């Protein structure tokens, strides 16, 4: 029963969204809606002419050609065991330096 209630609620929400989109679609071609959109995008002075374009065909973007080509394959990363080994090596070196530095401080102090 809870699943049915959840689905009813989801259906109501979707129904409200559809109704809202339908009303927006109807009002989209009204003069007021076009003026509101124009104000949103910077139209501020009364008397300016607002142009509204419909069904503008999209032009394909020109492809840019690169002047450089790869002479060898791109770096694709390291294997996990190599990353783990490098991380352990760095950790050992840092720990050793910290140990030696703290030991020298205690001997001097």
Structural commentary:
This protein is mostly helical and 109 residues long. It starts with a helix and ends with a helix. The chain is built from three helices and no strands. Helices cover 60% and strands 0% of the residues. The longest helix has 29 residues.
Q: Which short descriptors sum up this protein?
A:
3 helices; 60% helix; elongated; 109 residues; mainly alpha
Break the fold down into its secondary structure elements and pairings.
Elements (H helix, E strand, L loop, with lengths): L1 H26 L3 H10 L39 H29 L1
* Helicity range: 55-70%
**In angstroms, what is the radius of gyration?**
33 Å
Mean pLDDT: 81
Question: Treating each run of at least 4 consecutive H or I residues as one helix, how many helices?
Answer: 3
First and last CA, distance: 76 Å
Q: Uncertain regions: pLDDT < 50 for 5+ in a row?
A: none
Biggest beta sheet attributes? none
* SS-derived structural category: mainly alpha
Instruction: Tell me the β content.
Output: under 5%
Number of strands: 0
What best-fitting shape do the alpha-carbon axes yield?
Answer: elongated
Sequence of secondary-structure elements: HHH
Can you describe this structure in just a few lines?
The chain is mainly α and 109 residues long. It contains three helices and no strands.
């Amino acid at each position: 029963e809870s699943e049915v209630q959840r689905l009813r609620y989801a259906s109501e929400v979707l129904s409200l969204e559809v109704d809202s989109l339908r009303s927006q679609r109807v009002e989209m071609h009204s003069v007021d809606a076009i003026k509101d959109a124009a104000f949103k995008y910077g139209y501020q002075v009364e008397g300016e002419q607002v142009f509204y374009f419909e069904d503008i065909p999209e032009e394909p973007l020109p492809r840019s050609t690169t002047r450089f080509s790869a002479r060898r394959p791109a770096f694709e990363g390291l294997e996990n065991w190599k990353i783990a080994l490098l991380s352990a090596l760095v950790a050992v070196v840092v720990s050793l330096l910290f140990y030696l530095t703290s030991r020298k401080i205690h001997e001097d102090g």
